[in-house]
Design goal:
With 219 residues, the chain is α+β, with helices and mostly antiparallel strands. The protein is built from six helices and eight strands. The termini are far apart.
Length: 219
């Protein structure tokens, strides 16, 4: 590089030349760090795509992805938190106070920043089944919210198919439901105290889902 060549040309380095060399070294470090980060991100997206292809929709768990990133607070833009999707974990107060005691992969470990991090590495083909709706349509679950997957058979005779419905417990009286409807998974809510669907909008197979919710919440 030209600054280095000039500095070495006469065998002596002045203070000005030393500063120029220091700036060059700093730029090299920044560029190397940038390339390393881009490489790590590309690898994380590939791993996320493979995890999506292999994801077991019968288990209410998050995919573990070896990817760490920094996510800015939505409420206070000056605050930045470290998110690691291999747990997942986050350094925000919400996660450290209410979610870090949950088992690895537990859906309720998702704070706002973990949702943001999963969005960064979403595969081009999207997340599969209810996981797509959970990561895109959900908000941080109640800290005591638990989850299970209900298998529902739909259709007639040889045209029957099995669909996986993600259902939560209802610590605040509302159970979250992520069910398939008209080509995509959507989010629904069921109030276990008032025995009604949110906005009177029911998912396909609502009676089976309602019974599953009540059995789960009683347990």
């Amino acid at each position: 590089m030209e600054p280095l060549q000039k500095a070495w040309a006469d065998g002596k380095i002045t203070k000005t030349e030393a500063r120029q060399v220091a700036r060059v070294i700093l730029e090299i470090r920044k560029e190397a760090a940038k390339r390393e980060a881009e490489k790590a991100f590309s690898q994380a997206v590939e791993i996320a795509s493979e995890a999506a292809r292999r994801f077991d929709l019968t288990r209410p768990e998050l995919p573990a992805i070896p990817f760490s990133t920094r996510v800015r607070s939505q409420a206070k833009r000056s605050d930045v938190y470290e998110v690691d999707l291999s747990g997942p974990t986050c350094t925000c107060p919400d996660f450290r106070s209410f979610r870090n005691r949950l088992s690895a992969g537990h859906l309720t470990r998702c704070c706002k920043h973990i949702f943001d991090a999963y969005a960064q590495v979403e595969p081009s083909a999207g997340w599969p089944g209810w996981l797509c709706a959970f990561l895109e349509l959900s908000w941080p679950p109640h800290p005591r919210q638990d989850w299970f997957v209900l298998s529902i058979r739909r259709g007639w005779l040889t045209f029957q198919r099995t669909e996986m419905v993600l259902i939560s417990s209802a610590p605040n009286r509302w159970a979250d439901v992520f069910a398939f409807d008209r080509g995509r998974h959507d989010r629904y809510g069921y109030n276990v105290a008032e025995h009604r669907w949110s906005y009177d909008i029911e998912p396909p197979g609502s009676e089976k889902i309602r019974k599953g919710i009540l059995n789960f919440t009683k347990g």
